[in-house]
Amino acid sequence: MTLSNLKQSRHTPKKGKIKWARPQESDHFAATVKLYRQGKYDADSFRRFRLQHGAYGTRLADDYAMVRVKLPAGEIYPPQLEKLSQLSEQFSIGSAHFSTRENIQLHWVVLEDVSEIFRGLAEVGLTSREACGNSVRNVMCSPLSGVCPDEKFDSTPYALATARFFLRNPLSQNLPRKFKFNFTCCEKHGMVRMVDVGLIPEIRQEDGYTQKGFKIFLGGGLGNRSFVGHQLEEFTPEEDLLYTSMAVVRIFDRLGDRKNLARNRMRYLVNDMGWEKFQNLVLKERAIVRATQSVVTKLSVDNSPDEIKRPLRISDEGPISQPEGYARWFKGNTFKQKQNGYYSVFITLEAGDITSSQLHALSEIIQDFSSEGLGRCGFTQNISLRYVHEDDLVNLYSTLLKVGLAKSGSLTMTAPIGCSGTTSCNLALTNSHRLAKEIQRKFLELKLDEDEDLRDSSIKISGCPNSCGQHGIATIGFFGGGARFEKDMYPNYMMQLGGRSDGDTMLGVSSLRIPAKRVIPVILKIIELFKQNKKPEDDLKTWIHRVVNGIDSSEIKSLDDIKKALFSFTIPPTKAEDPDFYSDYGNDSSYHTKTGKGECAA
Amino acid sequence: MCSLSQGVVKITSDVESVRSEIRDKSIRVIDVRREEDYKQNHIPTAVNLPLATLLSDDNPERVLKLVNAMGIDDEMPVVVYDDTFGALASRIAWTLEFIGHSDVSLLETTYSKWKSMGLENDNSVPEFQLKEHSLKLRPEIVATSNYLETAKEKEGVILVDNRERLNFLEQHIPGAISLPYRILATPDKILRPKEDMKRLLDNRGITGGSEIITYCGSVGTLSGLAYYALKSVGLPNTRLYVRSFKEWKSLSKPIEKQQDANYWDLSAE
To answer: Which of 3.40.630.30, 3.90.480.20, 3.30.360.10, 3.40.50.720 is the CATH number of A307-402?
Structure first.
C-alpha cells in the first residue's frame, strides 16, 4: 500500500479493475424467461437456471424475484453504487438491502425486468451470477483486511482471485449444494469457522525466508444444524491455496449428498465421515490436483498496491465545529487503522436497508472522503468507508447527518442482524427484519451503544430455523416460529445464548422460547441481570459465556438460572388481555404461519 | 409528404431543435412549473401554464380558452417542459392532444438539466395575440372508469400502473401490471432511447396489437409520462385513465393487494 500526500479530484471516480459481468447473459436471461412463460421450459429447470443467475424467488409471489448482486471481497466502487441507486429506484422498491455475505439485494423485482437489471449491472462490471443456486457463492473478505493492526497481510487480493477462478468455472456449476468461502484479516474479525472454507492469512519463517500462506478451516457452517469448522493443517502456503480449494470443491462435488436436500451442505459430509477421514481425503486429493494441473491453472492474484490519495475537496476550509452526537458516533462507528492517521468508518443501517437516494449520496461521499476511493461491505448488513483521514471525520459525520446515514452504534450490540423474514422470504415464519429494526430503534433511544460492556456483544435474528440471520453465532440469537395458546397463534422466537465466531467459536445454546412482543424486554432483563452479577472486568459477552458454560460464580450460575429469571416473559396473556401479543411486528391482523417452497436447496 | 408525416409522431423535442425554433419564433414553449418558479427564470419565450391552473377546471371549453390566450392555433407547434421528470409536462401535452392539437411534444429533458448545461434563460413574460384554436375532441385517447371497467376484462387490453412498486403491492386495480414511472427515464432524459424502451416493454409483453391503458395515483401525471413512453415506441393504441386510482377508490371499485408479505418493512424510508 502506498500512501501519498497527493490529492485526487472527484472528477475521476475509481472503477473496479475486475469485470465480473458478461453482458450477453442479460439477453439470454430475457429469452429464457419468455420461453418459460410460453411453457417451453419446465418450472424446475427454469428455477435452477434463474438461481444460477442470481434471481431468487419471492414470498408467495411467482411473478417477483429478488436479485442478489455479488460484491466479491465486499468491494463496491462509486459508479456501482450510483447504478444500484438507479436500478433500485427503477425496478425495485426504492431501497436496496446489504446482506450478511457482502451481497446487495434488490427485492420485489418483476421477473421480466430481471434481465434489465443484469444489463445495468454489466455497465458497471457487476454480476449476480452464481449468487444463488448450487454454486460457489460470493467470496467474502473481512472489511478490515488491509487495515487491521492484527493481520499478517492483506487477504483481499486472494479473495478476489478465488472469486475470479470459480465464477462460471464448470467445476462449480452443479455442486450438491451451495458452497462458501470467507477470507478474513485476523481471528477476532473473522467468520472463518462458520463456513465451508474459512481462511486467515498467516506468515511462516523458514530458513530465513518469509512465506505467505493461510490457516484454512473446513466444514463449518450455520443452518438448521450448525457445525464449527476444523483447521486443515498448521500452515497452507500461498501456492497451495488454489490446489486446496480445488481439492475441497472436487471432494464435495463427488461425495456430497445429492438426494437429501436438508443435509447436503459440506458440513454434513464432514460430520458423517468424521474429521480425520475427511482431512486425509483432502490432503490426498490436493496431491493429485497439484500433480495433474497444468501450469496455466493458477490464481491471478493482483498484489499491486492500491493508490491511497486524500480526496481533494472544494471546501477544505479547516476545522469545523463538532455537531451534536459526534463523539457518540465516533465511538460506535469508527475503527482505527494500522495506517497512521486513518480510520475505517462503518455506516449504521437498519437491518441492511438503504434507500436509492442514500446509495447515490454514498457514491459521492466515498469519492469525497475515502482515500482508497471505494466502499467495503461488512459482515453485518452494513458498509464501510476506509482510509478516512482523522482530520476529515467531523466533516464526514456532518455530511452523513444530512442524508440520514449518521446513526450511531454500527460496531455495537445496538445494530442487530435481521434476515429478510416475512418481508420477502418464502420460508419465513416471523418478521425478523422488522424486529431487528425495532430493537435497534429502542436500544439507540436508550443509548445502549455507549455502554462499553455491550460493545462486543451481538444480537442476530432469523425468521425461521435456517440461519440466514446467523443467530447461532450471536451473543443473544433468535430464530422464529409460531406458537399457540389455546386456539390462537402468536409469533415466537427460540432464544440462543453465548454464540460467537472468533477464536473461541461456539454455537449459541438454546434457552427459552420468547414471544416476539417480549423479545425487547427479555434482552433488557438479561442486561439488567448482567449488571447485577458481573465482575468489574466483565463485558456481557464474557459473562454470558461463563453462564452458558455453567462456570459463573454469581447468583446466575447457569443457563437454568437465566431461564428461571426470564420464565415469566414466556407466559402468554389471553387474547382479550393483550391482542397486540397475537400479531407480529408490521402486522395489525392476527398472526398465522404461511410458507412456500424454499429455494436455498433448489 | 403528407402521407409520410401521418403516423410519424414526434414525442420529444431535442434541445438543439427547440433552441433554433425559439430563435425562428416558430414554436410555442409552455412552462408548466409554478408561477413563482417561472417568474424567476424560464426558457426564453416560454409561456406559463402551471399544472394546477389547468387541473382547477380541465373541461375542454375552458382548456380551449387557455390555449387561445397562449396564442396557440391549430398550426402552432407546441413544446412543453417541467422540472418534474416530464410527468407534469406530459399531463398538459396530453390535454392539448385531447382537445385536438396535433403537434405537441415534450422537451427531452427537464428545466434543471437545461440550466445545468448553461443554456439560455430569461425572466421576461411574453405576450401573445389571442388565437382561435378549433375543438376536435379525441375520446380515443382517454379512459373513464366505466370504460376501463369493461375494457380491462377484454383479451388484448393491458392495464399499466405507473406508481412506485410499494404502492402497487399495497393496492392496485385488479389485473394491472406494475411499471413504475422511474423505469421510463434515464438520468439525463425524461424518456429512455427508443430501442431501450422497446426491449423493456417487449420483455413485459407490452407490444403491438394491444390496447394499453395507463393510470397512476391521482391526476394522470406519472401515467401521462407513460402514455408518451408507449407512443414513443410506436404503440399508438394507448389511453390515459386520467382520473386514475384516486377516483377508482372513491367509487369503491374492486382493489387487489399483494397478500402475506410485510414488504413495507423492507423499505429503508
So the answer is: 3.90.480.20
Supply the DSSP string of A442-457, one letter for each residue.
HHHHTTGGG-GGGTT-
- Segment A407-443, tens digit of pLDDT: 999 999 999 999 999 999 999 999 999 999 999 999 9
Looking at residue A531, its amino acid is K
Give the neighbor-by-neighbor strand order of the sheet with B211-215: B142-143, B238-241, B211-215, B157-161, B177-178
CATH class of A140-292: alpha beta
Query: Among residues 164-223 of chain B, which lie with CB inside 8 Å of chain A?
Result: 164-166, 169, 177-178, 180, 182-183, 187, 199-200, 203-205
Q: What is the pLDDT at residue A317?
A: 59
Chain A residue nearest residue B165, CA to CA: A93
pLDDT of residue B13: 97
Q: CB distance B262–A594 less than 8 Å?
A: no
Task: Find chain A residues with C-beta within 8 A of B200's C-beta.
Answer: 113, 116
pLDDT digits (tens, 9 = 90+) for B55-106: 999 999 999 999 999 999 999 999 999 999 999 999 999 999 999 999 999 9
Residue B2 near chain A (CB below 8 Å): no
Q: Which of A260-264, A342-346, B235-239 has the highest mean pLDDT?
A: A342-346
Spatial distance between the Cα atoms of B160 and B90, rounded to a whole number of angstroms: 16
Beta strands in A356-436 (DSSP E): 375-377, 383-389, 417-418
For chain B, say whether A86 makes contact (Cβ under 8 Å): yes
- B121 plus B22 within the same structural domain: yes
pLDDT tens for each residue of B134-170: 999 999 999 999 999 999 999 999 999 999 999 999 9
DSSP of A39-54, one letter per residue?
A: T-S-HHHHHHHHHHTT
ipTM score assigned to the predicted complex: 0.94
* CA A527-A460-A490 angle, 5° bins: 85
Domain assignment of residue B61, given as a range: 2-137
Residue B76's nearest CA partner among B113, B21, B127, B31 is B21
How far is Cα A591 from Cα A588, in angstroms, rounded to an integer? Answer: 9
Task: Name which of A30, A358, A422 is nearest B262 (Cβ-Cβ).
Answer: A422
- For the cut 50, the answer to whether the pLDDT of residue A267 exceeds it is yes
- Asked whether the beta carbons of residue B260 and residue A424 sit closer than 8 angstroms, the reply is no
Residues 6 or more apart in contact with residue A108 via CB below 8 angstroms: A58, A64, A66, A92, A93, A424, B165, B166, B169, B263, B266
Sketch the domain layout of chain A as residue ranges: 10-123, 140-292, 307-402, 417-582
| Shortest distance, CA B265 to any CA of chain A (angstroms) | 6
Q: What is the domain count for chain B? A: 2
Q: Which residues of A touch B226 (CB under 8 A)?
A: none
Distance, in Å, from the CA atom of A46 to the CA atom of A33, rounded to the nearest integer, reads: 8
CA distance A350 to B264: 13
- Residue-level pLDDT at A602: 40
Q: List the CATH number of the domain containing B104.
A: 3.40.250.10
Q: Which residues contact B155 (CB under 8 A, 6 or more apart)?
A: none
Quote the cell numbers at residue A533: 452479577
Chain A residues whose beta carbon lies within 8 Å of the beta carbon of residue B260: 59-60, 422, 594
User: What count of CB pairs under 8 Å joins A to B?
Assistant: 97
What's the grid cell of residue B2? 403528407
Cβ-based neighbour number of residue B258 at 10 Å: 21
Report how far residue A590's alpha carbon sits from residue A583's, in angstroms, rounded to the nearest whole number: 5
Provide φ and ψ at A225, rounded to 5°. -120, 130
CATH class, domain A10-123, is alpha beta
Task: Note the Cα A239 to chain centre separation in Å.
Answer: 28
**CA of A65, closest CA in chain B: separation in Å?**
13
Nearest-angstrom CA–CA distance, B241 and B148: 8
